[in-house]
Amino acid sequence: MTDQPERLAPLPADWQRCLAVVAHPDDLEYGAAAAVAAWTDRGADVSYLLVTRGEAGIDGLAPDECGALREREQRASAAVVGVSAVEFLDHRDGVVEYGTALRRDLAAAIRRHRPELLVTLNHRETFAGTYWNTPDHRAVGLATLDAAGDAGNRWIFPELLGQGLPPWDGVRWVAVAGSPQPTHAVDVTDGFERGVLSLMEHRTYIEALTDEDPESYVRNFLEMTTGAAADRFGGRPAVTFEVFPR
Ligand SMILES: [Zn+2]
Predict the structure, then answer these.
(1) pTM above 0.85?
(2) Is the pLDDT confidence value at 2 over 60?
(3) What UniProt keywords are attached to this protein's entry (predicted)?
C-alpha cells in the first residue's frame, strides 16, 4: 500500500461498550478476538452481532445442520474472550445484500446496545491488497459504517422508534479489522493465547478448511498477522484496525 502511516496509533481505550458486527462465525476470530480479550480484561462490555450463521461455509455439510453447528462454535469462541452476548440475524450466508434492510437491522442493534466503539470486518475490495474480499464482508462492513450514522438520526428508520429504540448517536469510532489500510492497533501480548483458543473453537470449520493440525494452523496464522503488525507498533504483537472517528 502506498499511503499507510509508518506507525500505527494505539486504538483509543476511553470507552466502555463495544458492539462487533460481522457477516460470519469466525470473522472476528481471525485476529480481532485477541483484542477483544484485552478489552474485556479491563472490564469493557463487548457484544457480538453475526449477520448470518455461516451456513454455507462447509462444503460437506448442508446449511440446516451447518448453521446450528457454527452458531454453537461461535458462542463458544466468544466465551473464551469474555463475550456472552452473541446475537444472530437471519440474512443468508453468501448472498448478504447491502441495502436499507441490512442498515435497518444494524441500526436497531446499535440502538439496543448503545456502543461507543463499533467493530466490523474489512469492507474494502481486498485483503492485503492482493486477495479479493467476499461480497458478504464488503456488504456488512459498509452497512456497519453507514448504520453508525443511521442509528443516531431519528428520521431514518422512524419505525424503530415505535419498537422502543430511540436514536443512539454515541458511536465515537468504527474500527475495521483486517483492513488493507490500517491506522490503529491493539497490543495483544496478553490476549494472544485466548485469541488462539477462540479461533480453535471453530474446529469443524477449520478441519474442513485445511489438512493441517488445527492448532498449528491457527497459531501460525495469528503469529504471522500479529507479528507483521508489531513492526509498526513498537515491536509488540498487535491486531490492526482502520479507524473512522465520528
Ligand atoms: Zn467471513
Answers:
(1) yes
(2) no
(3) Zinc
In a domain, 2, yes or no: no
Cell 462492513 locates to 141
Residue 160 in domain = yes
Please give the helix or strand (H or E) that residue 37 lies within, else none. helix 32-41
Compute, in angstroms, the gap from residue 150 CA to the centroid of ligand 1. 24
Per-residue pLDDT reduced to its tens digit, 144-183: 999 999 999 999 999 999 999 999 999 999 999 999 999 9
Centre of ligand 1 to C-alpha 107, Å, is 21
Residue whose grid cell is 460437506: 60
Residue 62 is part of which domain span?
9-245
**How many domains, the chain?**
1
Residue with cell 485477541: 34
**What pLDDT is attached to residue 182?**
97
Give dist(CA 70, CA 55) in Å, integer.
7
